[in-house]
Protein backbone atom coordinates (compact mmCIF):
# COMPACT_ATOMS: atom_id res chain seq x y z
CA UNK A 1 0.00 0.00 0.00
CA UNK A 2 2.79 2.45 0.88
CA UNK A 3 4.10 2.31 -2.69
CA UNK A 4 0.97 4.21 -3.78
CA UNK A 5 0.88 6.54 -0.78
CA UNK A 6 4.54 7.48 -1.18
CA UNK A 7 4.75 7.45 -4.96
CA UNK A 8 8.36 8.41 -5.61
CA UNK A 9 7.82 8.15 -9.36
CA UNK A 10 4.97 10.64 -9.15
CA UNK A 11 4.09 13.94 -7.50
CA UNK A 12 5.40 12.93 -4.07
CA UNK A 13 8.84 12.16 -5.48
CA UNK A 14 8.94 15.45 -7.37
CA UNK A 15 8.44 17.47 -4.20
CA UNK A 16 10.16 15.09 -1.79
CA UNK A 17 13.13 17.24 -0.90
CA UNK A 18 11.09 20.40 -0.36
CA UNK A 19 8.89 18.43 2.03
CA UNK A 20 11.87 16.79 3.76
CA UNK A 21 13.45 20.16 4.49
CA UNK A 22 10.18 21.21 6.09
CA UNK A 23 9.32 18.21 8.23
CA UNK A 24 12.68 16.63 9.18
CA UNK A 25 14.42 18.58 11.94
CA UNK A 26 18.05 19.16 11.00
CA UNK A 27 17.69 17.90 7.43
CA UNK A 28 19.87 20.67 5.99
CA UNK A 29 22.80 19.82 8.25
CA UNK A 30 22.38 16.03 8.33
CA UNK A 31 24.43 15.21 5.24
CA UNK A 32 27.46 17.41 5.93
CA UNK A 33 27.29 16.17 9.54
CA UNK A 34 27.66 12.49 8.80
CA UNK A 35 30.04 13.15 5.90
CA UNK A 36 32.36 14.94 8.32
CA UNK A 37 31.99 12.04 10.74
CA UNK A 38 32.94 9.21 8.39
CA UNK A 39 35.19 10.92 5.83
CA UNK A 40 38.49 10.39 7.73
CA UNK A 41 37.83 6.64 7.86
CA UNK A 42 37.46 6.20 4.10
CA UNK A 43 40.54 5.11 2.16
CA UNK A 44 41.68 6.92 -0.93
CA UNK A 45 39.34 5.99 -3.78
CA UNK A 46 37.15 4.26 -1.24
CA UNK A 47 33.84 2.80 -2.37
CA UNK A 48 30.59 4.03 -0.80
CA UNK A 49 27.15 2.49 -1.31
CA UNK A 50 24.20 4.89 -1.01
CA UNK A 51 21.01 2.89 -0.42
CA UNK A 52 18.02 4.98 -1.45
CA UNK A 53 19.99 7.48 -3.53
CA UNK A 54 16.91 9.69 -3.77
CA UNK A 55 17.63 13.16 -5.11
CA UNK A 56 21.40 12.64 -4.94
CA UNK A 57 22.02 14.95 -1.99
CA UNK A 58 24.18 12.38 -0.13
CA UNK A 59 26.25 11.68 -3.21
CA UNK A 60 26.97 15.36 -3.81
CA UNK A 61 28.04 15.98 -0.20
CA UNK A 62 30.31 12.93 -0.18
CA UNK A 63 31.93 13.83 -3.51
CA UNK A 64 32.44 17.48 -2.60
CA UNK A 65 34.20 16.45 0.59
CA UNK A 66 36.20 13.69 -1.10
CA UNK A 67 36.34 13.91 -4.91
CA UNK A 68 38.38 10.68 -5.00
CA UNK A 69 35.54 8.55 -3.63
CA UNK A 70 33.71 6.11 -5.87
CA UNK A 71 30.02 6.31 -4.97
CA UNK A 72 27.35 3.88 -6.10
CA UNK A 73 23.73 4.92 -5.55
CA UNK A 74 20.80 2.52 -5.80
CA UNK A 75 17.10 3.41 -5.74
CA UNK A 76 13.92 1.60 -6.87
CA UNK A 77 12.44 4.82 -8.30
CA UNK A 78 13.44 5.72 -11.85
CA UNK A 79 12.26 9.27 -11.29
CA UNK A 80 14.41 9.74 -8.19
CA UNK A 81 17.45 8.41 -10.02
CA UNK A 82 16.82 10.94 -12.79
CA UNK A 83 16.79 13.69 -10.15
CA UNK A 84 20.00 12.31 -8.65
CA UNK A 85 21.69 12.12 -12.02
CA UNK A 86 20.75 15.72 -12.78
CA UNK A 87 21.88 16.96 -9.38
CA UNK A 88 25.24 15.18 -9.61
CA UNK A 89 25.82 16.58 -13.10
CA UNK A 90 24.90 20.12 -12.06
CA UNK A 91 27.28 19.88 -9.11
CA UNK A 92 30.07 18.71 -11.41
CA UNK A 93 30.89 15.66 -9.28
CA UNK A 94 29.92 12.87 -11.67
CA UNK A 95 33.39 11.33 -11.97
CA UNK A 96 33.35 8.05 -10.05
CA UNK A 97 29.56 8.08 -9.51
CA UNK A 98 27.34 5.25 -10.71
CA UNK A 99 23.58 4.90 -10.31
CA UNK A 100 21.52 1.72 -10.38
CA UNK A 101 17.78 1.16 -10.59
CA UNK A 102 16.81 -1.44 -7.99
CA UNK A 103 17.30 -2.42 -4.38
CA UNK A 104 20.28 -3.12 -2.13
CA UNK A 105 19.86 -6.83 -2.90
CA UNK A 106 20.50 -6.06 -6.59
CA UNK A 107 23.92 -4.54 -5.95
CA UNK A 108 26.83 -6.96 -6.54
CA UNK A 109 28.45 -8.21 -3.34
CA UNK A 110 31.97 -8.16 -4.79
CA UNK A 111 33.99 -6.09 -4.55
CA UNK A 112 32.78 -5.00 -1.10
CA UNK A 113 32.19 -1.36 -0.19
CA UNK A 114 34.16 0.58 2.41
CA UNK A 115 31.05 2.37 3.67
CA UNK A 116 27.30 2.51 3.16
CA UNK A 117 24.59 5.02 3.96
CA UNK A 118 20.86 4.49 4.33
CA UNK A 119 18.85 7.62 5.09
CA UNK A 120 15.05 7.70 5.41
CA UNK A 121 14.55 4.26 3.90
CA UNK A 122 13.83 1.63 6.54
CA UNK A 123 10.62 3.24 7.80
CA UNK A 124 8.98 2.51 4.43
CA UNK A 125 9.58 -1.24 4.91
CA UNK A 126 7.23 -3.41 7.03
CA UNK A 127 8.71 -5.19 10.05
CA UNK A 128 7.60 -8.57 8.71
CA UNK A 129 11.11 -9.69 7.87
CA UNK A 130 11.55 -6.93 5.31
CA UNK A 131 13.46 -4.52 7.57
CA UNK A 132 15.81 -7.26 8.77
CA UNK A 133 16.41 -8.47 5.22
CA UNK A 134 17.27 -4.99 3.99
CA UNK A 135 19.79 -4.45 6.80
CA UNK A 136 21.33 -7.84 6.03
CA UNK A 137 21.56 -6.94 2.33
CA UNK A 138 23.52 -3.81 3.22
CA UNK A 139 25.81 -5.64 5.65
CA UNK A 140 26.64 -8.30 3.07
CA UNK A 141 27.96 -5.61 0.72
CA UNK A 142 30.36 -4.02 3.21
CA UNK A 143 33.91 -5.08 3.94
CA UNK A 144 34.68 -6.16 7.53
CA UNK A 145 34.87 -3.07 9.75
CA UNK A 146 33.26 -0.98 7.02
CA UNK A 147 31.20 1.93 8.38
CA UNK A 148 27.42 2.13 8.00
CA UNK A 149 25.46 5.38 8.42
CA UNK A 150 21.84 4.72 9.34
CA UNK A 151 19.25 7.50 9.74
CA UNK A 152 15.54 6.85 10.08
CA UNK A 153 12.15 7.79 11.47
CA UNK A 154 11.47 5.60 14.50
CA UNK A 155 8.70 4.73 16.85
CA UNK A 156 9.11 5.39 20.55
CA UNK A 157 10.33 2.61 22.82
CA UNK A 158 7.07 2.90 24.80
CA UNK A 159 3.58 3.91 23.64
CA UNK A 160 3.81 6.99 25.86
CA UNK A 161 7.12 8.08 24.35
CA UNK A 162 5.82 7.46 20.84
CA UNK A 163 2.65 9.50 21.39
CA UNK A 164 4.58 12.34 22.99
CA UNK A 165 7.09 12.75 20.16
CA UNK A 166 4.59 12.08 17.38
CA UNK A 167 2.36 14.83 18.77
CA UNK A 168 5.34 17.17 19.02
CA UNK A 169 6.32 16.32 15.46
CA UNK A 170 2.84 17.24 14.22
CA UNK A 171 3.09 20.57 16.03
CA UNK A 172 6.48 21.07 14.37
CA UNK A 173 4.78 20.84 10.96
CA UNK A 174 2.49 23.69 11.93
CA UNK A 175 5.39 25.75 13.23
CA UNK A 176 7.07 25.14 9.88
CA UNK A 177 4.04 26.74 8.20
CA UNK A 178 2.24 23.68 6.88
CA UNK A 179 -1.35 24.49 6.03
CA UNK A 180 -4.15 22.48 7.67
CA UNK A 181 -4.76 20.66 4.36
CA UNK A 182 -1.08 19.84 3.98
CA UNK A 183 -0.91 18.58 7.55
CA UNK A 184 -3.98 16.42 7.07
CA UNK A 185 -2.59 14.93 3.85
CA UNK A 186 0.83 14.24 5.34
CA UNK A 187 -0.66 12.76 8.49
CA UNK A 188 -2.71 10.36 6.34
CA UNK A 189 0.44 9.32 4.50
CA UNK A 190 2.27 8.72 7.79
CA UNK A 191 -0.59 6.70 9.24
CA UNK A 192 -1.00 4.46 6.20
CA UNK A 193 2.49 4.26 4.73
CA UNK A 194 5.07 4.44 7.53
CA UNK A 195 6.06 1.28 9.41
CA UNK A 196 7.30 2.53 12.75
CA UNK A 197 9.60 0.39 14.83
CA UNK A 198 11.32 1.56 18.02
CA UNK A 199 14.94 2.65 17.79
CA UNK A 200 15.88 -0.25 20.05
CA UNK A 201 14.25 -2.66 17.60
CA UNK A 202 16.17 -1.18 14.65
CA UNK A 203 19.46 -1.52 16.51
CA UNK A 204 18.57 -5.09 17.46
CA UNK A 205 17.91 -5.94 13.80
CA UNK A 206 21.13 -4.24 12.68
CA UNK A 207 23.19 -6.23 15.18
CA UNK A 208 21.53 -9.46 14.04
CA UNK A 209 22.25 -8.52 10.39
CA UNK A 210 26.01 -8.40 10.98
CA UNK A 211 26.66 -4.91 12.31
CA UNK A 212 28.37 -3.94 15.57
CA UNK A 213 29.35 -0.92 17.66
CA UNK A 214 26.26 1.27 17.31
CA UNK A 215 27.04 4.91 18.08
CA UNK A 216 24.30 7.49 18.01
CA UNK A 217 25.25 10.79 16.38
CA UNK A 218 21.80 12.36 16.04
CA UNK A 219 18.39 12.51 17.69
CA UNK A 220 15.46 14.84 17.12
CA UNK A 221 11.88 13.93 18.01
CA UNK A 222 11.27 10.55 16.31
CA UNK A 223 14.34 10.77 14.07
CA UNK A 224 17.64 9.13 14.92
CA UNK A 225 21.02 8.57 13.32
CA UNK A 226 23.70 5.99 14.12
CA UNK A 227 26.96 4.70 12.77
CA UNK A 228 27.76 0.99 12.88
CA UNK A 229 30.68 -1.22 11.89
CA UNK A 230 30.39 -4.30 9.76
CA UNK A 231 31.30 -7.15 12.06
CA UNK A 232 34.47 -9.10 11.30
CA UNK A 233 38.10 -8.43 10.54
CA UNK A 234 39.28 -8.45 14.15
CA UNK A 235 40.18 -5.42 16.20
Task: Tell me the helix content.
Answer: 40-55%
Quick one: biggest sheet?
A: 7 strands, mixed
Order of helices and strands: HHHHEHEHEEHEHHHEE
Taken as a percent bin, the fraction of beta residues is: 15-25%
Q: Based on DSSP secondary structure assignment, what is the total number of beta strands?
A: 7
Termini distance? Answer: 44 Å
Count of helical stretches: 10
Biggest sheet strand line-up: 3-2-1-4-5-7-6
Please identify the structural class as seen in this structure: alpha/beta
Shape: globular
- Extract low-pLDDT stretches: none
From the alpha-carbon coordinates, what is the Rg to the nearest angstrom? Answer: 17 Å
Mean pLDDT across the residues is 93
Short description:
With 235 residues, the chain is of the alpha/beta class. 44% of the residues lie in helices and 23% in strands.
What does this structure look like?
- The protein has 235 residues and is of the alpha/beta class.
- The protein contains ten helices and seven strands.
- It has helices spanning 2-5, 11-14, 16-23, 27-38, 57-65, 78-91, 130-139, 159-175, 180-193, 199-209, and strands at residues 47-51, 70-75, 97-101, 113-119, 142-153, 211-220, 223-230.
- The chain has a seven-stranded mixed β-sheet, sandwiched between helices.
- Strand 6 (211-220) and strand 7 (223-230) form a beta hairpin.
- Helix 4 packs across helix 5 (57-65).
- The longest helix has 17 residues, at 159-175.
- The chain is globular, with a radius of gyration of 17 Å.
Amino acid sequence: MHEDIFDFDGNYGERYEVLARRVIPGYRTLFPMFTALIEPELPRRGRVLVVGAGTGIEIVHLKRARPDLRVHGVDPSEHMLQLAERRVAEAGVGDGVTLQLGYAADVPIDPPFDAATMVNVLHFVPDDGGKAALLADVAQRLRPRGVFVFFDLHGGDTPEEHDRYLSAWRRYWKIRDMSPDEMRDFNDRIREGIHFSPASRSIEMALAAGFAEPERFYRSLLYGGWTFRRRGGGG
